[in-house]
Specification:
CATH class: Alpha Beta
CATH superfamily: Glycoside hydrolase/deacetylase
CATH architecture: Alpha-Beta Barrel
Shape: globular
CATH topology: TIM Barrel
Number of domains: 1
Structural class: alpha/beta
Strand content: 5-15%
């Protein structure tokens, strides 16, 4: 695919410019050139990249750095009257980190192959070595506690390498917070707004200080300012969404994906786009399930190590459910499809195969944009709010009567406020 070749080459150019800049040799024009619009109001082709405008500016201890605008993003375009909206699909990953399974690096390859960008929700403790665990002070738990452990120096080095490359490819780095506490006894669902603010601040701190904490002072930095990069999250176990969103709205976040929605166009809550996971078909079952590998697994085997004879069937079942969800949106209301995953080999890795097969099937279709949450909210923010409100009236799988050209033929007009008693309000 020419687009993939072009994007991969661009990433290499940015990487070379980035690390040349660390020794004061960077020159160039900033690299974000205007892109032409598309025929369907989607973001245009991925923007070209070049060397940063100036030498890389290290931040703090050099764990992160400002390197200019992120490359390889789609440029949002406002829908024109009568245009069909693109079909957005967001593939996202909870607790992103590179371990011996090497699933992070694998799905970066998959993204390059099918020209798909994704969102990686990093768990902050994956950048904190075990011997420094006491630096983490989780709400309602003793310092150094974590239900998902910590990392070692080699794991931190590997994870940072993948985060660095992922960002340069146009992927998003969000947060899955830190200790992944669930349930009633101090779980995230019991946390206050202030406790969420503490958790967020610590998640940022572990990203901004991984060099010092891991003793990797000579390593290359992450090529972004995490205070600017971090605009959205998914909470552990999808708990604590309300208090988190209230905290996030005060901290400048732009979206959350921690709840449960239907496949309809999203709206806002507390000023954030609510891009929650969605209920999708469950082939062969009389109910739907959440668009996440974990939920398929729980409903199939109830365990991560179910009957090996069923592994292939279960993976096909998840893939087919996601494809049915895609089809009813693509042929219907074009609502963005939100899919969540984990870098886990549950039931023999069958869910990872299902996700990869889904990416291969949908991201190559016309009018389809496989993007990160950041790129989706950029597009949503660029639209006429009245147009989005009209699209929100379409139900799950409902195509507009008469087609999109008729449905969006003219910009909607806001209803006039009701007049007061006896005439116009004063």
């Amino acid at each position: 695919m020419p687009a993939v070749t072009k994007r991969t080459a661009a990433v290499g150019a940015v990487a070379a410019a980035l690390f040349a800049g660390l020794v004061g040799c960077s020159t160039g024009d900033g690299g974000r050139k205007a892109a032409d619009g598309t025929e369907h109001g989607a973001p245009a082709q991925k923007q070209g990249v070049g060397a940063p405008k100036s030498a890389v500016r290290l931040i703090g201890d050099g764990s992160t750095a400002f390197t200019g605008a992120q490359p390889n993003l789609l440029r949002p375009q406002r829908l024109k009257p009568g245009e069909t909206p693109p079909q957005f699909v967001v593939f996202s990953w909870d607790g992103a980190g590179e371990d011996s399974q090497k699933l992070f690096s694998h799905f970066r390859e998959v993204g390059r192959k099918y020209d798909a960008t994704m969102t990686y929700f990093l768990s902050g403790v994956y950048l904190l070595p075990e011997e420094k665990r006491s630096l983490y002070e989780p709400p309602q738990h003793a310092a150094g506690s974590s239900d998902i452990g910590f990392n070692d120096v080699e794991g931190i080095r590997d994870t940072v390498r993948e985060l660095r490359g992922a960002w340069l490819e146009g992927n998003e780095v969000g947060t899955h917070f830190n200790g992944h506490f669930c349930g009633a006894n101090g779980g995230v669902g019991t946390w206050s707004v202030d406790e969420w603010k503490s958790e967020i601040a610590q998640a940022k701190s572990f990203v901004k200080n991984w060099k010092t904490n891991a003793g990797l002072s000579s390593a290359e930095p992450l090529p972004f300012d995490y205070d600017e990069e971090l605009i959205g999250a998914r909470t552990p176990c999808l708990q604590g969404q309300d208090a988190f969103m209230r905290a996030a709205s005060q901290l400048g976040f732009r979206y959350d994906t921690s709840g449960v929605n239907s496949q309809v166009w999203p709206g806002r809550k507390y000023g954030l786009w609510d891009l929650s996971l969605q209920m999708v078909p469950f082939p062969g079952r009389a109910f739907e399930t959440l668009s996440m590998d974990y939920n398929f697994m729980v409903n199939q085997s109830g365990t991560t190590k179910g009957d090996p004879a069923m592994h292939a069937y279960w993976g096909d079942q998840m893939r087919d459910g996601l494809l049915r969800a895609f089809d009813r949106a693509y042929e219907g209301n074009r609502a963005p499809l939100i899919i969540g995953n984990h870098f886990e080999s549950w039931n023999g890795g069958t869910y990872m195969t299902a996700v990869e097969e889904t990416i291969a099937a949908v991201c190559v279709k016309s009018d389809v944009e496989c993007v990160s949450f950041r790129q989706l909210v950029d597009w949503l923010d660029a639209q006429d709010p009245l147009v989005l409100e009209k699209m929100r009236q379409l139900q799950v799988g409902q195509a507009p009567e008469g087609g999109w050209a008729r449905f969006l033929a003219a910009p909607p007009v806001a209803a006039a406020p009701p007049a007061g008693k006896g005439g116009a309000e004063r």
